[in-house]
C-alpha cells in the first residue's frame, strides 16, 4: 500500500532559480531511489524551511528513504529534520483528485 512521506527542515537557501540550479542533480537522483513514485518540493523562504512531500510504493521504501535522506541532510549541515510517514485514505483522496499513482 502506498505511503506518503512528509519531510521538512530548517533551510537558509538557496531559494528560487538558484535552488533549482543547485538541486537539479539531486532531484534527478531521487527518481532512482527504490519505491519513489513522485516528490513535490516544498520551501518557505519567509520561514526558512525546506522539504518535500513524497509518494512511495510502500512503508519499507519510505522508511529506508527517510533514514538515508536524514543522514544526507545531516552531512550537508542541515538540522531540525522532521519526517513523518502517513497512511493515505484513498477513497477520500480520490474525491479530491489526489495524484496517487
From TrEMBL:
<protein>
    <submittedName>
        <fullName>Monooxygenase</fullName>
    </submittedName>
</protein>
<keyword id="KW-0503">Monooxygenase</keyword>
<keyword id="KW-0560">Oxidoreductase</keyword>
<dbReference type="Pfam" id="PF08803">
    <property type="entry name" value="ydhR"/>
</dbReference>
<dbReference type="GO" id="GO:0004497">
    <property type="term" value="F:monooxygenase activity"/>
</dbReference>
<dbReference type="InterPro" id="IPR014910">
    <property type="entry name" value="YdhR"/>
</dbReference>
<dbReference type="InterPro" id="IPR011008">
    <property type="entry name" value="Dimeric_a/b-barrel"/>
</dbReference>
